[in-house]
Amino acid sequence: MQTLLSEVEGRQAALLTLLRTAAHRGSPAQPGEARTNTDRFLAQASRHTAAATWILLPPVARHLPAGRAEVRDHLRAIRRLERTLVRAKAKEYGQAQTIQVPWPSVWSGVHHHLGRTIAAERRLAAMLGEHLDSDDEARVRERFTRAVAAAPTRPHPHLPHTGFPGHVARTLCAKLDALWDEVEGRVTSVAY
Q1: On the CB side of 106, how many CA atoms lie within 13 Å of its CA?
Q2: What is the dihedral of CA 49, 31, 176, 146, to 10 degrees?
Q3: 132-164 per-position pLDDT tens digit
Q4: What is the CB neighbour count within 10 angstroms for residue 46?
Q5: Residue 152, by phi and psi: left (phi above 0), alpha (psi -120 to 50) or beta?
Q6: d(CA 79, CA 49)
């Protein structure tokens, strides 16, 4: 039986693969391939972090000792990652403030913050797995899987992440992101 931890780890491994593909900026086989790879990674990383915030953090706060402190720490890590993802998207789309920043520096920051977020998520998923019975864990795992597909495809570090305001912000941002993805022609496939 697949556990919450194995589900989270599988999705994280896929994210790291997408990151390696996006960060490899050699001569692309086709025009636009580098942008497509970057868009795909940024969309999936944004979806993953939004789903983890939405689904994993409430049970952490409820069921774990010192859960609220864990949630605060994790939210700080997620916001740092999201700010780094915003910089990567700005660089990809040619924002003037990012012209002088080399790609290796951008990807190094993304890799660093993603690694820290992944480690924290694994720890939280493992602790949740120990505190939840198998039925509750299966429900959380299923909700997490569904939440990834419905989450925003862009990072939103300055919006609320938790509670009712976070839910409303995520729902609205997911719809607006889908609209802008269509306008920009971004590749944001859900399967990863």
Answers
A1: 23
A2: -40
A3: 888 999 999 999 999 999 999 999 999 999 999
A4: 25
A5: beta
A6: 9
